[in-house]
Amino acid sequence: MAKPLAQEFFKGLWDEVPPFRLVLGLCPVLAVTKSVENGIGMGVATTFVLVCSNILVSLLRKAIPSKVRIACFIVIIATFVTVVELVMQAFAYPLFLKLGIFIPLIVVNCIVLGRSEAFASKNGVFRSFLDGLGIGIGFTLSLTVLAAVRELFGTGALTFWEKPIPIFGPSYQPFSFMIEAPGAFVCLGLLLCIMNMIGKK
Amino acid sequence: MGDFFVLAISCILINNILLAQYLGNCPFLGTSKKMETAVGMAMAVVFVLVMAGVITWIVNTFFLKMLDLEFLRTVAFILVIASLVQFVEMFLKKSIPALYAGLGIFLPLITTNCAVMGVCLINVNEEYNFLQALVASFSYAVGFGLALILFAGVRERILLARVPRPLEDTSIALVTAGILSLTFFAFKGMV
């Protein structure tokens, strides 16, 4: 039952969009969504790791013995995470400082390992590539949406390229609950509730 | 001695690993539906986190720093944690079967628990010495257990309540976690 290729890609955008539908990889979702910029940065880094590790796992799926597969996947993922870490240190140092330990923690992001285990180890290279890309983009979009909501209400402005653009005008009292830890949980919970309302037939 | 006490309190309450640092949230939501699983997970985390914290500290100080291989930290740490978990599992199975039966299914899950990896990285980033790293790892783990068990207690009650349809399950759990996190937030001014 081979699904059409397009479906492998688009399922990541709505049907299986990571932090909402598959409740996986919540830690970076909650932690880095204080501003839109951080959210997008984290999303892109995760997408890169997801796509690369999916491709490599899929290429090696016949060579990896199934008993030690998890360890092999983790080493593959950790390698790409190190690549991202070094590239970010070189070209996007301010962002690297802001994301802090959450860049190395992509290794233990369950989404990445989950896709390797559930998809890439069973499917061909091109399909795995599409799957990784779709899930990655879905993840980035959800991070962006969550970050936008939190930043907008938390500070009254949206930051792009380190320049805050005020949306609500100077008289707005920032609702700082939103950019602190409790706001992250509540906000994600309410967004999930909205998605359920739209999604349930 | 006083310093260690302050460190311990700040790791357990103020910088609670789950509710203030946002680490280890997948098992937080995944294993908190029942008190039994929550207690199992909390114990397993305390057990592994202390060992992982100490061993990664040693690896970092005596191997990576001395050989100038710090860029390999991510790979080295995850390998240490993964093999440690495997080793602990085998050891418990052989010598303490009762504990193994209790922790059994939670042990493999710990490899991808970002709280473990996170604490190891925090220890290194904050440049703790050996004793501080030991105390911090233990306190973070206790904080994890505390938050998880509290949350499981609340969630067992929610099961009995009538929740609006779209909010069911994960959604209401997240909102509850937010409120719990708010209570921990109140400790912020303490130290």
Q: What oligomeric arrangement do these chains adopt?
A: heterodimer
Percent strand of chain B:
under 5%
What percentage of the residues of chain A does DSSP assign to strands (E)?
under 5%
| Strand elements of chain A, count | 2
Largest sheet of chain B: none
Principal-axis shape of chain A? globular
Distance between the termini of chain B: 16 Å
How helical, in percent, are the residues of chain A? 55-70%
Give the rounded overall mean pLDDT of chain A.
82
Q: Give the low-confidence spans of chain B.
A: none
Query: In which range does the helix fraction of chain B lie?
Result: over 70%
Order of neighbouring strands in the sheet with most strands of chain A: 1-2
Report how far apart the termini of chain A are: 25 Å
How many domain units of chain A?
A: 1
Report Rg of chain A.
18 Å
Helix tally of chain A? 8
Give the key terms.
heterodimer; A: two-stranded antiparallel ribbon; 2 strands; B: mainly alpha; 9 helices; 0% strand
Explain what this protein looks like in three dimensions.
The complex is a heterodimer of chains A (201) and B (191). Chain A has 201 residues and is mainly α. Chain A has one domain. Chain A has helices at 5-10, 26-31, 36-59, 69-91, 93-99, 110-120, 125-155, 181-199; strands at 157-160, 163-166. Chain A has a two-stranded antiparallel ribbon with strand order 1-2. In chain A, strand 1 and strand 2 (163-166) form a beta hairpin. In chain A, helix 4 packs across helix 6 (110-120). The two termini of chain A are 25 Å apart. The mean pLDDT of chain A is 82. With 191 residues, chain B is an all-alpha fold. Chain B has a domain at 36-140. Chain B has 9 helices and no strands. Chain B has helices at 2-14, 25-30, 35-64, 73-95, 97-103, 106-110, 114-125, 130-160, 170-185. In chain B, helix 3 (35-64) crosses helix 4 (73-95), helix 4 (73-95) crosses helix 5 and helix 8 crosses helix 9 (170-185). Chain B is globular, with a radius of gyration of 17 Å. The model of chain B has no long low-confidence stretch (mean pLDDT 84).
